[in-house]
Amino acid sequence: MSENASQPDLFSKFDPLIQQREALLASGVQDPFSLVMEKVLSPTRALCNGRETILLGTYNYMGMTFDPDVIAAGKQALDEFGSGTTGSRVLNGTYAGHRAVEEALKEFYGMDHAMVFSTGYQANLGIISTIAGKGDYIVLDIDSHASIWDGCKMGDAEVVPFRHNDIEAMEKRLKRIPEGAGKLVVLEGVYSMMGDIAPLKEMIAIAKANGAMVLVDEAHSMGFIGPNGRGVAEDQGVLDQVDFVIGTFSKSVGTVGGFCVSNHPKFEIMRLVCRPYVFTASLPPSVVATAATSIRKLMHGANKRAHLWENSRTLHAGLRALGFQLGTEVPQSAIIAVIMPDLERGAAMWEALLHEGLYVNLARPPATPAGMTLLRCSLCAEHSAEQVRTIIGMFERAGKAVGIIL
Amino acid sequence: MDRAQTDARIRGIIEPFNKKGIEISDGATFAGDFEFDSLTVMDFVAAIEDEFDIIISMNQQAEIENFGQLVDAVCKLQRD
Ligand SMILES: Cc1ncc(COP(=O)(O)O)c(C=O)c1O
Fold it and tell me: Which of A67, A148, A253, B41 has its CA 20 to 30 A from that of A365?
């Protein structure tokens, strides 16, 4: 610890957050940010604090984490290729499995190029910071994911945000960019805090009319939005207008990793110039094997997809009928955000639900828009209709106990 | 538009955002004196951008801490 009192403590900038956290815990609630799952029983059930708990706060949308084919592929790769690559993709870290998962992605999206990163965070960080350079402009939605913002911060481009999903605000900013400057518009298919989707059709048309390239992060739509599960851009019929799709293996695919797919003829040069791709170790062989198997199965997931949407609609309608305030008027994705009056009651509600045997995500600023505290529910294709009914009952009891609903 | 005119127009725009009625001077800071949070900053910047038909990128915003610097930046952006 600091022995010289006059020396500034670099941690003093965190004091307000430390105090807020201490005050919250002093009120007696369990720390919502340090839950441990002792055992995971299935994509929808785990043991937390010794109690069987329904999982409604994972991004395991398609329930692929326990798929027998996926697990078998992982085990086989572990046996045949070992536990890790110990190297960068551009040196000793590209195994047959890395190529195979990139082939699976190209097929899944019907695109010419696919590049796999160690996480989705790094995919955004790498692609955005590399393609938009000094003198270029990035026009992006103010509610963009942290990895998009960090990609902007890491690069040298001018960064111009616009109000969430505001088509006119985006257009005005595009039109004000100086003649001749390179332009990148960055959008998301599904915004994961509120679970709302973007009007990509209109926005991409305007971006293209103003000479911008378009990057869409489809992290929360892969596998179940659009006729082939390619995401919101496919659903709105504009995927062919998107220059770069960013995605992740950590949600519907059910493992870890990130990617960018593109039809840009020069795309492959990214492998040499994109630092978050080059200067980090590649994914373990078992991970890319599970990802490739999962992606190929997602191509044929129509039934699961239909059931996931049914779950989303049932939960949305049920929570609404109970009087909860939700992030969207109608369910637009597999995320239903329940708006809490404040952090204290949000944390109390989170804990009450956990006591009921339900895990949801507590989200708060700065991750959330407009300083909101949210209980984010994300559904899984493996939730049974009965589980969804049980979940609604748990919300009713917890909501009444905490005084969020009457 | 000269500096005085720009200054006057920005004073008009800041009014609805100046909830605490802070006295506006060149040295008044947005974070410290006006206590703008990030959402207010976005709305306020958007209002200025629309009024003057300019872009104030996040990179440029990072250099602007007080009212006087904002007026200077807007003057410069209008000339560019
Ligand atoms: C919109 C969005 N983009 C990117 C990511 C990063 O994904 P990953 O978990 O693979 O780093 C996430 C996940 O948190 C996300 O929500």
Answer: A253
Residue A82, both tokens: 């070992």
Pairing of strands A244-248, A258-262: antiparallel
By Cβ distance, the residue of B37, B38, B46 closest to A163 is B46
The mean pLDDT of A271-294, rounded to a whole number, is 98
* Contact (CB<8Å) A159/B58: yes
Contacts of A371 in chain B (CB under 8 A): 37, 39
Task: Determine the pLDDT at residue A1.
Answer: 52
pLDDT at A4: 64
Task: Please state which of the ranges A26-40, A176-190, A312-326, B5-19 shows the lowest mean pLDDT.
Answer: A26-40
CATH 3.90.1150.10 fits A27-62+301-402, yes or no: yes
Q: What is the pLDDT of residues A221-235, one digit of tens each?
A: 999 999 999 999 999
The residue whose C-alpha atom lies closest to atom 15 belonging to ligand 1 is: A219
Domains A27-62+301-402 and A69-298 fall in the same CATH topology: no
- What are the boundaries of each domain within chain A? 27-62+301-402, 69-298
* Interval between CA A59 and ligand 1 midpoint (Å): 10
Structure tokens given for A96? 């047959």
What is this model's ipTM?
Answer: 0.92
**Does residue B49 contact residue A170 with C-beta atoms inside 8 Å?**
no
Which among A29-33, A185-189, A363-367 has the top mean pLDDT? A185-189
- Strands A244-248 and A183-188, by their bridges, are unpaired
Q: Do B57 and A158 touch (CB under 8 A)?
A: yes
Owning domain of residue B13: 3-79
CATH topology of domain A69-298: Aspartate Aminotransferase; domain 2 (3.40.640)
d(CA A300, CA A38) in angstroms, rounded, equals: 32
Indicate if the pLDDT at residue A3 is higher than 60. no
Residue B61, exposed/middle/buried by CB under 10 A (0-12, 13-18, 19+)?
middle
In chain B, the number of structural domains is 1
pLDDT > 70 fraction of chain A, expressed in percent and rounded: 99
Q: Given this model, what pLDDT does residue A215 score?
A: 98
Query: At CB < 8 Å, which residues of chain B contact A?
Result: 37-39, 42-43, 46, 49-50, 53-55, 57-60, 80
Provide the CATH number for the domain around residue B28: 1.10.1200.10
Of A159, A162, A176, the CB nearest to B59: A159
Closest CA to ligand 1's atom 10:
A120
Nearest CB partner across the interface for B59, out of A158, A162, A371: A158
Q: Could you tell me the pTM of the whole model?
A: 0.95
Closest A-chain CA to B38: A370
A266-297: b (≥16 Cβ within 10 Å) or e = ebeebeeebebbeebebbbbbbbbbbbbbbbb
